[in-house]
Amino acid sequence: MITERPLPTSDPRIGVLGSYGGLNTGDEAILTCVLTCLRAHSPHASLIVLSRDAEHTRAHQPLANEVLHWEGVPHRQLHDALAGLDLLVLGGGGVLYDGEARRYLRLVAAAQAGGVRTLAYAVGAGPLREPDDREAVRTVLSAMDDVMVRDEESRLVLEEVGVERDITVTADPALLLPAEPFTAEMMAGEGVPTDTRLVGMSVREPGRAAEHLDEGDYHALLAGVADFLVRRLDAHVVFVPMERQDVRHAHAVLSRMAAPDRGRIMNGAYSPGQILGLMRHLDLVVGMRLHFLIFAALSGLPVLPLPYAGKVFDFARRLGAPTLVGVAREQSGLLLAELDRLWDEFPQRRPELVARVRSLQVLARETGVRCGALLDDLPSRSGVAPGSGQRKPPLAMGRT
């Protein structure tokens, strides 16, 4: 049990906990957007990121005032740091899944025990089958001041687990990411031509979120897709890794292509904003990674998602993009036909895509507004909420 936290005597101290530390480009995009939102609302707040690689986060997140490494740190030291917070923000991103949910929520529960207010910021959930993770989710989320998930799939997962509270469906924070330049020099450094059509492709490894994938099957499927696009569009295919493990799988796909000379695998280390900037060089994208698809949609490109998991299927549905179920070789014909149709019809579809993206961005901003309302509700220096004689109750919550 941690000691009761002291009443704030200065600007608020806000902790941000998630899968941060350079492991995944999408998670880093989320962290950038969450910190930007918090800084915009509370310019003088102390923003403390709990990272899995503190050195990486210090180097890449200038908005963070402090960075704490939370894996392998003595419990007392970590609990003392949590006790000094006024608010702990969990997420965003997919943090509530088997094997990981209990680890994150152990820290959230410790903060709650010390009187720190807590909020789930557009998190993703599932799969959740292991009893310890399900129990942690039921217990800790019920005690949070606000719970927002990034998609309908996550809400359904939490309800199935037994979370009995209002859960608001918003949208992924990375929808608010600003682009950074990806220059012609950077393209040349990657050996990517700029005088031809370019198709971006995202390949990921099987894992907890994609445990049903057969490697040989989907590698062969994507190689066939890449070859089709080379022929159909006279294009080069650019494989964009979003995690280090993606490189190996991109090589596996490239090795199965009939025209491997028309493919390139990006090898440089780039910020999320630069990967978003890369999209302006592309003509079409096919992808498995959620944030690769988000970046493409933000750039107004024709997008064909490959829904290996519910979060990708949900985003495709909200985007109005084709929603083929699964990534299996027997779907090759359907996939190629869908690509053909997508390319031919996209000039007419583009206005709808732009409108849907804008609607999702509105939801993403509302996540920040709700977080800001909770910040405004924190006790003042005298220990009472502004304008009242006692601490206010948690925010009223509703489902969208």
Question: What would your notes on this structure say?
Answer:
It is a single chain. This protein is of the alpha/beta class and 400 residues long. It folds into 2 domains: 13-169, Rossmann fold (3-Layer(aba) Sandwich), CATH 3.40.50.2000; 184-358, Rossmann fold, CATH 3.40.50. Helix content is 44%, strand content 15%. A 7-stranded parallel beta sheet has the order 3-2-1-4-5-6-7, sandwiched between helices. Helix 8 (215-233) packs across helix 9 (245-256) and helix 8 (215-233) crosses helix 13. The chain starts with 12 loop residues before the first strand and ends in a 24-residue tail after the last helix. The relative contact order is 0.13.
List key phrases describing it:
400 residues, alpha/beta, Rossmann fold, 2 domains, seven-stranded parallel β-sheet, five-stranded parallel β-sheet, 13 helices, 12 strands, disordered N terminus, disordered C terminus
